[in-house]
Predict the 3D structure of the following.
Amino acid sequence: MEHHQQQDRAGAHPDHVALIQAQWRRERPDLDVSPLAVIGRLHRLADRLTAELTLVYQRYGLSEGEFDVLAALRRAGAPYERAPGELAAHTMVTTGAMTKRIDRLERSGLVTRRPAEDDRRGRVVALTDAGLRLIDEAFTAHLRNEHRLLAHLAPDEAAALQALLTAWHRRLDGPAAPGPGPTAVGPAQSDL
């Protein structure tokens, strides 16, 4: 009966998450597995979106992390530079991971490192002319790809989804947010 209810609500056959929910309801009827309907689908959608987005980055010879670094430098505005710590904050990765990304980008001639003018121990990472050209091309393709992915939603659906996700994100990040905190969150995404 549950199979038919899920089919009627969705207007199609049950998806993978609905089947998993049905299995858990059968095996653990004492538990409310309704969160799987949202969390499970978001998780699967995030994996799918990441796969679709990384295809574009790869066309430009970039990993997702390298794209994030170049995008953070480009968003900084002229002269397109930031300290490595700032880059780590703007891409939400550890400084160790940032160092590896910068090393690869520097070897590719897309960024340079120099001493900071106000701190002899500090460094500054900047886009090269080649890096600026590449991120402008890659970001243009990235946005075309995101528009393509969102085209599966009507404009009012996309707006409603944006509002819901924004509200949920704010509540999770709020000062009284319940739960184990940011250390339990999965891989961080950049704030493109």
Q: What stands out?
A: The chain is about 60% helix and 5% strand.
